[in-house]
Amino acid sequence: MTAEATAPRLSPRQLARRRRVASWKRGWARFRTHRSGMVGLAVLVVFVCIALAAPLLADSSGLDVTQANGPILAPPSADYLLGTDENGRSVLTLLMWGSRISLLVGLMATLISMVIGTLIGLVSGFFGGWVGRIFFRLTEWFLVIPYLPLAIALATVLGRSLVNIIIVIGVTSWPGTALLIRSQVLSIRERAYVERAQAIGAGRWHQMGRHVLPNVMPMIFANTTLTVAGAILAETTLSFLGLGDPTRTSWGSMLESAFDVGAITTGCWWYIVPPGVCVVLVVLAFTLIGQALEEVFNPRLRTHS
């Protein structure tokens, strides 16, 4: 008996799983060839490790103003590597704990944005008639409204809290994703395998779930990293404007406090430069990863690169 005859037959689900694993392996191999993407991934891993290990690296009591006993706005020294703030707290402690809030808001707001944008993009692109037109006009309406004034208005109405900031950023940053998904769906729904599924009696929701959505998932995944960068910038902006959670320390709230005490005019660079650099590095890391993933998942970009 041959090896093919003795080997167990794989079910369709097992075959599909094996193909997906092989596809992800090929994608990872292509991603590793992008130097900028790997640099962005390395930077992101460092910040994620710092955020996860913040309770081990710095005691949370260092965030409490009532327990601060350091000098006021002291420059970096052996005791305080990044100096202190206006309350005598270590800037390094604030920076490490602030990374947790900034990354959390960016990831959770992006999750809300991607869910809303994907659903609206799928429906507006796959369904024709008045249903598709309504969702498309809704997307255009959100695109016309300036993003920052809308976010400020919603944050003011909902109040200053971590959950509200996540909701505000999530419900105002989905239109770009919806348009991207809609354009992909318009192309995919005209392909032969979708027409064959329709010809044998598959319903629209079945076609969307089994044929359309799996083919747009790589583009959704690549766009997610770019959306996280925008969400982190949005959280920093809102917190800097005084609309963040006053009970939480984030990089944006650090910049707000540094501005309020005049860190720029008094020369307290150690209070304003570190959080600003961290925001730039994390946003740049997500952007580099997103650009690399876009080339990995888009064959046309790979051809022209």
Task: Present the secondary structure layout.
Layout: H1 3-6, H2 12-31, H3 35-52, H4 54-57, H5 91-126, H6 129-144, H7 147-158, H8 162-172, H9 175-188, H10 192-199, H11 204-240, H12 251-260, H13 269-297, H14 299-304
Helix pairs in contact: 2-13, 3-5, 3-13, 5-6, 5-8, 5-9, 5-11, 6-9, 7-8, 8-11, 9-11, 10-11, 11-12, 11-13, 12-13
Can you tell me about this structure?
It is a single chain. This protein is mostly helical and 305 residues long. It has a domain at 101-253 and 280-304: MetI-like fold, CATH 1.10.3720.10. It is 74% helix and 0% strand. It contains 14 helices and no strands. α5 runs parallel beside α9, α7 (147-158) packs antiparallel against α8 and α11 packs parallel to α12 (251-260). It is elongated. It starts with a helix and ends with a helix. The model has no long low-confidence stretch (mean pLDDT 84).
Overview features:
305 residues; single chain; MetI-like fold; mainly alpha; elongated
Shape by Cα distribution: elongated
Number of distinct helices: 14
Specify the structural class: mainly alpha
* Oligomeric nature of the chains: single chain
> Briefly, what CATH class of the domain at 101-253 and 280-304?
Mainly Alpha
Which architecture of the domain at 101-253 and 280-304 would the CATH scheme give at its second level?
A: Orthogonal Bundle
| Total beta strands | 0
> How helix-rich are the residues, as a percent range?
over 70%
What is the succession of H and E elements?
Answer: HHHHHHHHHHHHHH
Q: Report the CATH topology name of the domain at 101-253 and 280-304.
A: MetI-like fold
Q: What's the end-to-end separation, in Å?
A: 49 Å
CATH superfamily of the domain at 101-253 and 280-304: MetI-like
Largest sheet: none
